[in-house]
Structure formats: structure tokens, C-alpha cells
Amino acid sequence: MDDELRTVVTRVHSGEEPAFDELYHLTVRQLYKTLYTYLLIREDVEDVVQEAYLKLYQVRRKLDDTRSVPVYLRTIAINCARRKLRRSHPITAPLEEDDASDTELVKGVVREALQQISPADRLVMGLFYGDQASIQDICRMTGEKEGTVKSRLSRARERLREVIDHGT
Amino acid sequence: MEHDDTEYTDMLNDELRDIEPDAGLHSKVRDRIARNVLRVCRRNTALGAVAVAIVLTIGLSTVTPVFGRNGTLPQVIAAMAAERQAEKMSKTLGTGPVQQTGTALQTSVATVQAVSDSALSETDGILALVISERANKPVADVLTMRTDGLGWGLIMTQLDVSGRDVGEAMSQAEEVAVASSPSAASRGQETSSKPAVSNSDGDKIVVSGEITGVSTNSITVEGKTFAIVVETQLKYHGKPVTPAKITVELSAGKLYATVQGTKLSETTFRANLIVVQDMLGETQQEQEREQSQEHANGIQQQIRGNVTFVSSALLQISGFVPGIVLNVDTKVEQVGAGKSTVADIKVGQTVQVHVSLTWTTYTATQVHIEDKYVKLDTPSDEKIGDQGNQPVSNEQQARGKVTAVTAMMLRIDGYAHDVVLTGSSKVEQAGAGKSTVADIKVGQTVQVHVSLTGTMYTATQVHIEDKYVKPDKEANEQPTDISVTTWQGTIFGVFVQPGVNSASEQTIGVVVLTASGQQPTLYWILPTSVVQDASSHTLTLAALQTLQGTAAQKVTIQGRLLADGTVDVVRIVLTTDTGANPGNGNGKH
Questions:
Q1: From B20, which residue of chain A is nearest by alpha-carbon distance?
Q2: Chain A contacts of B12, Cβ < 8 Å?
Q3: Which of A58, A130, A161 sits opposite B12 (nearest CB)?
Q4: Three-state DSSP class for B140?
Q5: What digits encode the pLDDT tens for the residues B330-349?
Q6: Topology of B283-369 in CATH?
Q7: Into how many domains does chain A fold?
Q8: What's the pLDDT tens digit per position in B44-59?
Q9: pLDDT digits (tens, 9 = 90+) for B454-501
């Protein structure tokens, strides 16, 4: 994956237009999930994804450090998402699942728990557990200090545990 | 239930398992990128077009006279640079830069005079001299081109003079001129002379410079001799002065004067106003330099202040040292009146003056009188004729507070002369209309039309601005008790004295009443007083008079006690009671 990404970034940097599409396909899935953890609304996530890739496209010829491209892309996307959150109404994601399946019951509980965590804490949790990003990378992407990131992670974990264990 | 990091990861991944981007999202991203590329392309195209247009315009302006008579862009730039150098030189030299520039360039007096007499500004004059010298052309040719409206850049091109030529000539001229400037001389030898400036406008002429001769009937300022006539106003330190006094002062050192006169012929001039000044001090020089800088920045100025002196040809404003010439082209307007005339400008008014500076002569192009127009009765034409056909310039107006007034003389604060009041002096007062000299009081604010004959200032019209206040009779009465009081006593005497004034109003008679053991008291019988006998029948004053001296004739009087102890009678009734009991009023009688 890393080698493939490095190759693609190199081709993008050299001006190869189809390479940008390949870069998109390599990175969009994880970015989408991370943004969903943060925003919880698909339409908002799609808007942010479009904006993030547009910005990435505008600086594509300056992408030289292949290793930092995913971090850079998330940083752009997080900033776009923050603007989106400031402009939009409070998140009220619908709870769709009423099925009897245990798995789906658990999913419903997790989703409810995510809604009760603040967006900023949720974002850190998504990056840490979803993206498997390091604390240092999360600090770079969110612009927050390490202590703040760890506090957010701890708080999100605690809240998730409370909701799952006690349903409140 | 125990949770660890793996469990959280799994939990979150399970939750997000179904969260995948739609297949169409890639198309949306691509569309958005394409739209953006198109927008950027259009913007760049528009910017490019603007840039190309600018470049083409600049390119075109370098070869085509797109600035009309100012020429091409390089010529306009060259002209601006040259004018900036000329302005700098003008500021450096202070007064009379054209003369000094001419001297420095070793041009003839006639050349300098030609520039001085032209209608060009000082900056233009300097440039004309410099370009003429560099092009080796008569200055008249340069002046003609300039007055035809050509820009300096175009003139320089046509005469093959470059900006560098002008710069070099300007530097040389400036060095020489500064070295030989009056201020430099005054610092070294104290023999400075203020350069003469002559400016004429039709038959009016204004000359400033050193006084080189003065007699009882003439004064010579920088070679121009003006006749001093009876109408000539001669001022020194703001006060009238005689030619003899100037002669004495002149013997003690140099004097300077600004003469505003009338050109009688090409060689004879009559002085209307002569303002004599001492040798310029450093402060004055600084002031003039500042004024020169102001004028160098723009020929048109605006000045605001109070009128300290005004005649038909000259205006002086507080805070602005030079006199301002008024001429037929000067537009005058006043708040509340609109279009006005120079005659409407009065001492004390606040005015805004648009001034055109030509050399050192300030000419008013427009005067705006901020004081609201007050309608005055203007003297009839016959009246003006009666006053001896005085020239208009001898009609002055003064405004201020009355500091002293007699039947013959009026003294106004801020006006140096006592004004003679005659039987012909018209007086009017706001709120009263036609008034008399007796209505002029100390402390009032008055506007006076003054006619100057010789050294006598005679008031033709006095307008009292303080509004007329009708005297309040009641206030003068100052009664101690305005209520009706009753007295009783014995008649001591009755006198019929029509016209005698009590403290309040005219009486028709007086009753003197005595009460036992008290001083006689005066009771004023008024036209409104009721006089009755004991039967309440009306008595005439004559009938009452027959009773005077009648022993023990008592009366009861109702009246109003005045401040002086006398009484205005309301009702007087004869009583049969012969007792000398006092009245029930205040118990005084």
C-alpha cells in the first residue's frame, strides 16, 4: 500500500492526470470513514470529501513527501469539516436500526454512544482507532497538543463504555 | 464487560463497516475539480486581457499624445518631474523665486519682467525661464506655447530640452539664487530687500516692495511712484499714519509697503491704500515662506476668518497677514441673501474667501459671508450724492460694541477712529426700525456705515443690532405694595397740576392729606381715580379743590402705595366723620 501510494504520488507530482484518480481511490475509503465518525451525516461527509480532494488537486504538483500525503489530506479534510460543523445545525443522526439482530443492536448502541460524544472527541477516537493514526499524527492533523489529544481519547473511551455498559 | 484498545478498534470498525463512499462520489469530485479548473481558466483569461490592455495602453501612450496637449505619457512624466523641481526651487527660495531664478540664469531684466507680467504661476515662471535658457529661445516663445495650453513635457520635446537639462539648470540656478537671496544677505549684512512684485488687473495695480521715496503727495515703491491724494489711506502697524511720519521712519531704516492703487495712465498711478511694513523679521519671513509653500502647492486657497478691514478694493481677514484684493470678478454671496456685493462685506463678519495667488498678490475670487443677512435701509442715491461724491473706496463699514457715545460722537470697540454723528446719520434698531442717536447705548453691537472725508469719519448709517426692548412701566414703578389700601385723614390741600408725574403715570391733581401727628402725604389723583362726596356722588377736581383748607374735612382714600411713600389714588370719598383716626391700610396714616 505504502509503495503503491508512493508511486502514485510521484506520478501525480509529475503531472500525470490519471494518477490523481488512483490517489483518490487509494485514500478515499479511510478518509470517508474518519469524516463520518466526525460528522455522522453522509451528505456532509461527501461535501467535505469533494472540497478536500479539490484542494489536494490544486496543490498536486507540490506533493513531494509521499509519506505525508495521507496526513496532509486528513488535515485538509478536518479543516473543511470543522468549517462545515460551524455552519451546520447540531448533529442529529437518525437511528435507523431497529432490527432484532444482536450485532445490529450493538451497532445501534455504538452509534448512540458516538452521538453522545462531542465531535472533537469523536474525531480523535476515529483517527486513533479507525485510522490507526499515531498520537503525533493526530496532533499534526488536528493542531492540538498531545495532552489534549490524549484527554479527548480518554474521555471518548469512557463515554463509549458508559453508554454500552449502562445504556446512558 | 472489560474493554481494551483492540475491542474499541473492532467496535468502531464494526460500526463503520457499512460506511463506504458512494460510487458516484468520485464523479462528483471530478466534476468539482473540472468546474474549478474552468473558473480559474476564465479568471486568468480576464486578468490576462486586462494586463494586455494596460500594456497596450502604456505602449500606445508612449508614442501617441493620448493626454492631448500634455503629450505622450513620457512627456507627462517629464513635465511632472520638471514641475516638481520647480516647486522645490520655489519653496527653497521663498519670495520672488522668478526674479532670483532669472538673476541666477543671468537673464535680462526684460525677460524676468516678461515672466512676471505673464499670467503664469511662479512654478511655471521658473520653468519657462529654465527651458528658455536651455533651449536658447526667447522666453516669450515659451510663454506663448504655455499660454496656448501645451504641457511642459510637450514644450520640452518641441524645444529639444530633456528632463536632465532642466534638472541641471534648476540645480545651478537654485545654488546661485540661494547664495544671493535676501534672506542670505540679511543673515550676513542685514541689508535684505523684499523683492518687488508688481501685478496689475485692469486699472487696478498692487505693488509690494521697498519704499524708496515718500513725500506728502507721493510714495515710490520699487520704482513705481503713486500719488497720495486725500482719499488715500495710509496705514502703519494697522493704524492711520501720515506721509510725514513715514518719512521720519524711513530715515531710521528701510521700510516696505504694499500699495493698492489705480492706474491713471501708463506711467501715473494713484494710491488708494498703502500698508507700510517694517523690515521683514525672521518670523515674518518664515510665515511668507510657509505661504509661498502653500501657494506652490496650489494657486487656489481658501481662507476663513473675521473681517478686520474692508473697502471696495481690499479685504483683510484676521489670521491672514496679506491684504486680499477685491475686484469686479470677485463673487460675493451671503447666507440668507444669496448673491451679494462687495458692499455687503462688513467688518466683524466671518467670511470664507477663495483666494487666487498670483506672485504675492492674493485676489479674492469668491467671498462667502457666513453671517446671516440682516436687511438694512440703504441710503438713497441722492444721499450718497449729498455726501460729496466720495469715491466708493471711502465708504467703509465698521461693526462692534459701542464703548462710548455722545450726541456727536460714537466710539466702537475694534475700530480705530471715533465716528462723527451728524443730523444726517440715520439710526435704526432691530425690532424698532427708525431710531435716533439717543437710542445708541454703550454696550450695544452696531454696524456703522462710515464715510471718510479727509481724516473725518462720519456715520451715514448706524444699525443697532441689539433688539429694541420696550420699557416696562410696571418694572419702573417698583411698588412696595400693589394691593389697594385705605387711608383716612384731613385734607391739607388740593392742587390741580395736570402733567405732574407720579412715580407711575400722569396725574391730574394732588391731594395732600394729613393725619393727626403725622407728616403730610401726597396722594396722586389720576385720570382713573374716582372722587366722590359722602353720598357717593362724583365730585370734580375743582369741587374737591374748594374744600382745601376746610377745617376738619376728612376723606377716606383707597389707593396703591408707591415705593417713594406717595399714593396713587383709586378712590377718594369725603366723609362726615371728623375724627382724625388713621386709615386701616398699613396704619401709616
A1: A29
A2: 37, 110, 125-126, 129-130
A3: A130
A4: helix
A5: 889 888 788 888 888 888 88
A6: OB fold (Dihydrolipoamide Acetyltransferase, E2P) (2.40.50)
A7: 2
A8: 999 999 999 888 888 8
A9: 677 888 889 888 888 776 544 444 444 457 778 777 777 776 665 555
